[in-house]
Design a protein that fits this description.
binds nicotinamide-adenine-dinucleotide, Aldehyde Dehydrogenase, Chain A, domain 2, Aldehyde Dehydrogenase, Chain A, domain 1, six-stranded mixed beta sheet
Amino acid sequence: MSALHEVVNPATEEVVAAVPALSVEEVDAAVARSRGAFESWRHVSPGDRARLLRRFSAVVEDHLEELARLEVANAGHTLSNARWEAGNVRDVLAYYAGAPERLLGHQIPVAGGVDVTFHEPLGVVGVIVPWNFPMPIAGWGFAPALAAGNTVVLKPAELTPLTAMRLGELALEAGLPEHVFQVLTGKGSVVGERFVTHPDVAKVVFTGSTEVGIRVAEGCARQVKPVTLELGGKSANVVFADADLSRAAATAPYAVFDNAGQDCCARSRILVQRSVLDGFLALLEPAVLGVRVEDPSLESAEMGPLISAAHRDSVASFVPEGSQVVIRGTVPDGPGFWYPPTVVVPSSYDAPLMKEEVFGPVVAVMPFDDEADAIRIANDTDFGLAGSIWTSDVGRALRVSRAIESGNLSVNSHSSVRYWTPFGGFKKSGLGRELGPDALHAFTEVKNVFIATDE
Ligand code: NAD
């Protein structure tokens, strides 16, 4: 019998469930079942695999509201965000359901025969998920992995396992064969670590902190095991003087306070051209104060609590006594791990708030002088995940987009994630790309076969 660990609603501090914390032996048994299932799953015809994934997508759609409400209770996400997240799983499954019949190889002209390539599945894929977006991040791993003919073991974060567990049940309800997709709950240092060291886990997809990601990559290197890493971010929102300042200011709070700032793509540094800094801050204030921070189960909620008391302490440590807080929102009274939307002008460009990922609703605002200065400051970080550029000059938009060392940039908007476009980071934000048309190849090995035709 596995040990149990408790799951807490971060908006009420009430225990909502107790889930098993699996042992290494239990993980090994699950990997063995997964490896067994792989032998038949890889041979399911492309059309049947596609049909099963479409059905899985449809079952997620049928349970969308249930999944969303479960996420509100487990992660404190606002109801509207949680609905989007469950919908994202549905969409990612539907998108990759189109893949099995399109997993095309090449036929390459050669002398004396025929040369063809195959995209072979890898085997058992281990997907390790953080607590900030439990559903989408799981789906970005398991949907393409399954489509390419792999089986999946999925480890949700200790704090947020409930929607992943439900998705595991829904996969069976949709008709996926047993053990093709298993959800294994427990500690990162036990379950996650075992995915890295187990010789029968052929690939690890890890999303989480840079610190743990490096450890995962080191372990995978020892096994020569492929790994995809989606790690932290410190993204810049660069506002030029020629931008539509009203729109830039009205949208900036949502680009960092969405999901209470617990978003790897959070635009947590707002860089504003010096000549418009005061005007921008004047427009930003009502926008920040207008963010509705309230019970996340309300339809109107725009921001909920942080995930835990410990995380709230960590966020608060970035705003020590004496910080120049220029705008601060409010939070509800009573239980819950709340932290208000907070805008700070840091003491220097080297302050922790300009360099480190806060992962909470705290944003730094700093001025820049010209285009070159904006690019230099935007790139002055170890991370390179996302970013936004606000300008009415198309040439500048493209020059700055090309110059910022980041995987996902948006001009005059803050979008980062579309399931049909690639997502991932430069520098210490990660390795490899998820989503989009090419992600499938991260779950296959290319095999080249030459067939002699000469007599
Ligand atoms: P974390 O690194 O603490 O944990 C992530 C996952 O790894 C959890 O499931 C955890 O149990 C597991 N884990 C912990 N130790 C492990 C080990 N030794 N071996 C294997 N697995 C282990 O991160 P977190 O606090 O859950 O998530 C927040 C971080 O995730 C932030 O840094 C954020 O930027 C990052 N993130 C990145 C992206 C992206 O796509 N780039 C998306 C979301 C979150």
